[in-house]
Amino acid sequence: MARTRTTALFWGAGALAWVLGMVVARPLVGGDPTLVVAQTLIEAAPGSIATWAIETFGKYAQWLLVVGVSFGIVGAGVAIGVAIDRGGLGVQRQLQLSYVIALGVFAVTAGGFYVAGGGISSRWLLATILAIVPPGAVWWAQVGPRGAVGKRRAMRRMSGAAGTVLAGGALARVLGESPSVGGVQPGADLDPVDEKTGTGRTTPAPTGTPGGEALESRSKTNGVVVSEAASDATFGFDFEGMPDRVGAIDNHYVVDKNISAPTVNSQQWELTIEGAVEEPRVLSYDELTTHPAARDLTLTMVCISNTVGGDLISTTDWTGVPIKTLLEETGVEADAIDIVTHAADGYSEALPWSVVSEREDIFLAFGVDGKTVPKRHGFPARLLIPGRYGMKSTKWVTGLEVSASDHEAYWEKRGWDERAVINTLSYVRAIQRRGAQIAVGGIAYAGIRGVEGVDVSLDGGETWAEATLESAPSASAWNRWRYEFTQPNPEALDVRVRATDGDGNRQRRGRSNPHPGGSTGWHSVTLSL
Ligand SMILES: Nc1nc2c(c(=O)[nH]1)N[C@H]1C(S)=C(S)[C@@H](COP(=O)(O)O)O[C@H]1N2
Ligand SMILES: [Mo]
Predict the structure, then answer these.
(1) Residue 398: partners with Cβ closer than 8 Å, 6 or more residues away
(2) Among all ligands shown, which has an atom nearest to the Cα of 42?
(3) Is the CB of 254 inside a 6 Å radius of any atom of ligand 1?
């Protein structure tokens, strides 16, 4: 029994050392074998499980899976130890088996880093060696080439290995910070697009919207910022807790299926345009970024898995080329049905050609905030489709395929709505008190239908009043709204909000979950003041 425990402990410690070694080496190639396994599980999981995980764990779902896989590896190590001991193998046989397993661990490590890092490189070699040192040290200390050694010597070997790994880990961090690929870097400065083509650019906010006064107090209830300001000055739309009319990309939400974002080299990158076209064609990064049809567009993106009042919604200034132009230059055949976007992470999305050919605002963005696109938002180029949920807007685009049949996209295969047209939404974001004056404010969005009006109720939906709408920064962006009233000593307020879209249709009242077509329902919050 005691021996079983020792053997199990040895194998468990070896597995744990392996996991730690991989974590240490991770920055070198931007991933490791554990992440490769977790990523494979994410993509293989049935849609119902993926949706359940997103709904239950939100943005932590992917990292919980990684932790689970790591525990699984350690557990497997312990199980192997127990099995070896129970198997009643002789010392010689145990040693032979340990060599076979060591070889397997080495192969999996090298293979995993190969997949994670996209091939053979000096970084791949360094990562493999670094990750192998800790389990190697445990193995060497226990069995070693010349059998088990004394406790003292084992300790010395282990601390030597620990030192190597610490030094290697520091090196890995430094190298990991420096770009592993040449060419234009994500988030680098970009030449501004010609004034005359900048048609979708942010329209300036009307003046006379001063910022918040000095705050006396501030808190957050149900995700809504409750604050109190000193003076009776005008509220505007920028009081504490209100989002910026147009935000910075650094504050933009991030959602994708990947545990770590793919790394793409702008010099090696090319956009292929193929399928039902007159002649397939490739565009280089320079050809895309200097394309004469490049234009700016201010866009509000929202994820289809956003819940009522949620944070997966952001507005920023993008720069790109309409894909209609790129496709027409290439020559689209008459039997075209779908325009499929392919991506560096294996993701795909599709939109009917009948829709794309009608619209100038569906475009391949290579810039945001006057800079190149950050890695996590799809460097070097990502699609943007105003009016549709974020899932349609493929990041890390590598190709446009004109398909003569209906393409089944990544999330569509997992049971989400194919068209993914944005449902009208309105959220409460902030409430501020300036003496007896109170303003409640938030955002409203109806995709490209636009927002016509926003109503606010303070009595649980009995009576409604019209909110003041700020002009939208563009035809593809949200409106901020506020509603001001006087109430000397309110203790709690039951705030409800509903919007009417540009077609005159009121936002759906009934609550529904994000799956399969995006959440619906009026946002209501009870706020204590
Ligand atoms: N290649 C790729 N593109 C993708 C995804 C993805 O997993 N892979 N996720 C989509 C989803 S669900 C959303 S909401 C948006 C989010 O874009 P953002 O991270 O830039 O906000 O990207 C979309 N594009
Ligand atoms: Mo999404």
Answers:
(1) 269, 270, 271, 272, 342, 343, 344
(2) 1
(3) yes
Specify burial of residue 147 (Cβ count, 10 A radius: 0-12, 13-18, 19+): exposed
Q: Is the pTM of this model over 0.85?
A: yes
Give the DSSP letter string of 181-212. S-SSPTT-B-PPP-GGG-TBS-PPPPS-----
Which residue's CA is minimally distant from atom 9 of ligand 1? 256
Nearest Cα to 398, choosing from 506, 503, 284, 314?
284
Atom of ligand 1 nearest to the CA of 302: 14
Neighbours of ion ligand 2 (CB under 5 A): 255, 303-304, 390-391
Instruction: For ligand 1, say whether the CB of 395 is within 6 Å of any of its atoms.
Output: yes
pLDDT per residue rounded down to tens, the chain (529 residues): 567 777 888 899 999 999 999 999 999 988 999 999 999 999 999 989 988 888 888 888 999 999 999 999 999 999 998 988 888 788 888 888 889 999 999 999 999 999 998 889 999 999 999 999 999 888 887 765 455 556 777 777 778 878 888 888 888 888 877 766 778 999 999 887 765 454 556 666 665 444 444 445 678 888 899 998 887 778 999 999 999 999 999 999 999 999 989 989 999 999 999 999 999 999 999 999 999 999 999 999 999 999 999 999 999 999 999 999 999 999 999 999 999 999 999 999 999 999 999 999 999 999 999 999 999 999 999 999 999 999 999 999 999 999 999 999 999 999 999 999 999 999 999 999 998 899 999 999 999 999 999 999 998 899 999 999 999 999 999 999 999 999 888 888 999 999 999 999 999 999 999 999 999 999 999 988 8
For atom 6 of ligand 1, the residue with the nearest CA is: 256
Of ligand 1's listed atoms, the one at least distance from the Cα of 376 is 19
User: 394 CB under 6 A from ligand 1?
Assistant: yes
Task: Tell me, in angstroms, the distance from the centre of ligand 1 to residue 255's CA.
Answer: 5
Is any atom of ligand 1 closer than 6 Å to the C-beta of 257? yes
The answer to whether 124 and 29 are in contact (CB under 8 A) is: yes
For residue 296, the Cα-to-chain-centroid distance in whole angstroms is: 23
Q: How far apart are CA 306 and CA 423, in angstroms?
A: 11
Indicate whether residue 349 lines ligand 1 (CB < 6 A). Answer: no
Structural domains in the chain, CATH included, are: 2-175 (no CATH), 215-244+423-528 (2.60.40.650), 249-403 (3.90.420.10)
The number of the ligand nearest the C-alpha atom of 515 reads: 2
